[in-house]
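Quick one from the shared queue. A colleague (R.T.) flagged Menorin-like domain-containing protein as missing a structural entry in our internal table.

Convert sequence to structure tokens.
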Amino acid sequence: MQPDAAPSRSPLAKATAARHQRDWSQKKPQAPRNMSPMAARVVGLDTRSPRSSSVSPKPTRLVSSRQRWAHSVCSKSELEAALQDDSITAIETDLIWSTTQSAVVHAHPPQTESDLPFDAFMDAVTTSPQRKHIKLDFKSQDVVQPVVWGLEKYYARALQARGQHVWLNADVLIGPGSSSCNFDADAFVQSCMRHRAFSSLSLGWTVDVGLGHSYSVDHVAALRSLLQRHKLLGDPRLAISANLRMALRNSEPLRRLLDECRGELLLWTGVGEPPVSEQLVERARRVFPADRLALDVSSTTAGDAMAQEVALSIYRAWRRAGDLVKRTTSTTSTPDADADDDFYDRARRRPTCCR
């Protein structure tokens, strides 16, 4: 059933209406044996070999490093605003599986529900009069396969025709201040490399921004080993994703990695992380090769940034004090120690900016 025309409809509504006009009448074959039931359901999509598979990837440098980003666009209203903003050139969004909605949706953990499903997002960005590049930040391994299949099958040609670039991003290795990772790094790379005609890989580390750590030689060595295993050191479309503050605290390991590979460095600031000053951004451009540096950061004036840094320093001191007291009480068997666990657990909890 075709929706009635409505001149006042938003770009997102128009895009969704356009999608419903497609011919979905063809019978869908069985999913490949190596595809999970959830992936087949979402790709329900249709799991035949993608129609756009004849389009060969072009190993060219990524789009301009001086993008202006809309961060964590995870709702219809945020997407509409980003599409209508002429100053925005690229949209960053998060992807997660919603068990309550039984669909891949755009949400940033701990949120797992959203009014913006994956297909509605892609319909909007590939039909909007304003061309925007896209960074898809995967928050769990189980949504990778259905998303890359959907991109290749339904959106690759439109993305290429419009000159829209897609970064497939995930924090696939354990990084500074972190002790866990939701991804199998090799499996993520293999899934994404099957569908490279329209996209590039963006690989990074899980981090805890709140404690003031930096990227070590070992962190970078683990990524280099991953790139070497998958023959990605010579791929100019590769993006190495790192937190801007952490990268500048110890830039040497990342600079050495850039000397060994042809990819770019994508520096980010996370959701809930204080904005960085323009001076810090300019410092990043001096420290790293400017022609190979992409920035997905929230920046602000020097005065505001200084106030934010003071707040971040206070938070770090509070976190470290909580860790110290927790370790001290764990060595003392007192009735009150267990009762205080909840307080100290809260003191050690990750901030929202940690990915």
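The first strand starts at residue 69 and ends at 70.
The chain has two domains: 58-301, 303-347.
Added to the table.
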